[in-house]
Amino acid sequence: MEIAFYFIAFTVLSLFVVYYSFTCRVTRNFLECLVNELSNEFSLEKVERLLEVYGNIAECVNAMDDEFSLPIFLIIFLCMTGIFWRGYRFAFYITANNEYLLAIIVSTLMYSFLLIMVIISASVTNELASKAKYFMSNLPYRIPQQSQRIKYILRKNCTQDYSLTLWKIYVIDRSMLFTSFGTLLTYGMLIGALGNSFDQKNVGMKKVLQVG
């Protein structure tokens, strides 16, 4: 029964992460096309279409972040917690059988894969969004002086920030991947040191009781 529960939970979690990554991939495709268009020469008539595309992409990213920022935060928290506890069990449950150790290793790899998949997908999307915003912010200097209305729309749109975040708290970037594993390693070493100290105290107490 427990195995079935974990299997269903992993399946649901994996499907959601795959869907999130696929949505990020589609968003990046649109952003890449927009950046390519902005990198080339274009006419004044084409600017309005690019503005419309940029506005639609920004709205999609904001809507995506509104819907997924909290679930992604919970998924990353769950993955980090799962990696931490399985690493702790692997390090301190030395007497466990091979099947149990294999289950710990497999689940740790799955949690790590989901964590990496989410962070990489969101961070690359945010990088492309920042690149598109940079090109849009420089667009007024490439438009003739008489296009004041378009320049006004550009300045208005480029002041809006849009990115994928964790519960509207932290913008996901590549450095978060190293920070996450570094945090797990730091707390793992800390708890490991505390565990060894606790074991040494227990051994000392037993010796005192035996002598007494």
From TrEMBL:
Q: Which residues form a coiled coil?
A: none
* Span of the signal peptide: none
> Does the keyword Repeat feature in the UniProt annotation?
no
Keyword terms, alphabetized: Cell membrane, Membrane, Receptor, Transmembrane, Transmembrane helix
Membrane topology, record value: Multi-pass membrane protein
**Which InterPro entries does the UniProt entry name for this protein?**
7TM_chemorcpt
Membrane-spanning intervals of the chain: 5-22, 68-88, 100-124, 176-198
Q: What are the GO BP annotations of this UniProt entry?
A: detection of stimulus; sensory perception of taste
Question: Could you tell me the superkingdom of the organism this chain comes from?
Answer: Eukaryota
Cell location? Cell membrane
Q: What GO cellular component entries does it have?
A: plasma membrane
Question: Which GO MF terms are attached to this record?
Answer: signaling receptor activity
Pfam families documented for this protein = 7tm_7
State the name under which the record lists this protein.
Gustatory receptor
**Species in which this protein is naturally found:** Nephila pilipes
Its lineage opens with:
Eukaryota, Metazoa, Ecdysozoa, Arthropoda, Chelicerata
What gene is this protein translated from? AVEN_69863_1
